[in-house]
Amino acid sequence: MKTLLNRSLLNKLSVLVVGAAMLAPAQALAHHMMGGKVPVTFMQGLLSGLGHPIIGLDHFAAVVGVGILAALLGRGVRPVLAFSAAMILGVALHLASANIPAAELLVGLSTLLIGGLVALRLSLGVLPAAVLFAAVGVFHGYALGESIVGAEASPLGAYLAGLFVIQTAIAVAAYAATTRIQQRAPSFNRAGMAAAGALIALIGAVMVATAGFPG
Fold it and tell me: Deepest of 13, 31, 66, 191, by most Cβ within 10 A of its Cβ?
């Protein structure tokens, strides 16, 4: 019975992963329907915000990883909300012309770190966890902010709203799935989380290799 339950959960997880992979191009199309230009209407800003977190695999992996890690730490969805708020702050910093050196490298390193923590199931204190979620959010938000520079108030506000809603929804979904697995299939939990964390870390490592280190 337990084996069947584990297989059922694994199948559901596989469907979610495949579905997310299929959804990403559709969301990317919604974003790039403006031809890569800065959105100029409320609806364009909203579509851009909704699509942006899952256009880049590194951003999507980090958001999912944040949800999984929040569940493993057992502190509710507050870390997820903190991450989402910090990502909006990161966008704001970019719009304010603040300089975060090697932002793409930091995005990759933070994704790698999130994946490693998930894979190894390392526990964090309240303060280190808060700093981690905030830093990851700021780095990713700063990188995403490049696409919205120069937008007017209406599309900008819509972009930020869409960004906050979609990334929070994705992270909360990952949180809920992880919590369910922990409760219903503890024997699968360790192996499943190790695999998920390793995949997230791999995506982060590829991002790091692509970004390179500043010379």
Answer: 66
